[in-house]
Amino acid sequence: MLEYRYDTQLLIEGTDLDEDAINDYFVKNFKGNCLIAVGDEDLIKIHYHTNEPWKVLEYCRSLGEIFDIVVEDMDRQERGLKG
Fold it and tell me: Where is 6: in which H helix or E strand?
């Protein structure tokens, strides 16, 4: 059993985005691991393993438009099923 089940990936498009501030918010407010928050002030790529992907989506939506959203169940993938 995985500690964090959902691989959550998305892009945030906005203005004045700050990848360091986003990274800090994730660390302080979400339980998970494997965080990647990279980009520039207009576009940020997020990759994060969590058990509560809806919280990640809600926060990211507050920063700008979110798209290319992928939430995969890694537990199902580990068992050979479609994630």
Answer: strand 6-13
Low-confidence ranges of the chain (pLDDT < 50): none
The pLDDT score that the predictor gives to residue 2 is 87
82, 28 in Cβ contact below 8 A?
no
Tell me the C-alpha distance between 77 and 37, whole Å: 24
Token look-up 């509560």 returns 52
Residue type, 40: D
Per-residue pLDDT of 63-81, as tens digits, reads 999 999 999 999 998 888 8
Distance between CA 74 and CA 83 in Å, rounded?
6
Alpha helices (H) along 1-78:
19-29, 53-63, 74-78
- The span from the CA of 83 to the CA of 39, in Å, is 27
